[in-house]
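Hi R.,

Here's the chain you asked about this morning:
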Amino acid sequence: MIYQLPELPYAYDALEPHYDEQTLRLHHGAHHKGYVDGLNKAVAKLARARETDDYALIKHWERELAFHGAGHVLHCLFWENMTPQGGGEPQGALAQQIAKDFGSFTAFKKHFSAATAAVEGSGWGILAFNPHSSQLEIMTAEKHQDLSIWGVTPLLVCDVWEHAYYLKYQNRRPAWIEAWWNLINWRDVEKKLAQASNV
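And here is the predicted structure, written out as tokens:
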């Protein structure tokens, strides 16, 4: 196996009451593990195709690689983006960049929440750094991999697949998003911005 399920940086009950323990256990231990397993399978099948010179299923396995690979990467970011001591507003360079690119933190929060709530089907809300414009961008992703901008670096992600919130919030996606703001690890996001903007 090339890829492995990462350990969470906190206990399963540490994000209560905003993120319940039962959902977090299922989300991390079953759903994210499923993406890791699917990614490893796709990698192995593509290696086998090269070894045997048999590319009959290449389209299928390339799609599986993109789907499970993007799912794995986004979930790794998602866990890192949250902390029991989270919430509030960012400070320093991240706060300045948000104010420059969105006008204010309030405007950014409203934009991000609205875009994330409007994701069609399953997907993600994403704050990313675009090196081509040196600006922050709010994007959405359907599934894990659709609607991407090439070359951007995701900094902050909110999972709005139903398995991410359904046990506690049922079909109330906006309520989950509002609760998620209380968990954001702004230091992690600022660190990711510093790394992305200095490349």
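One quick note: The chain is about 50% helix and 10% strand.

Cheers,
M.
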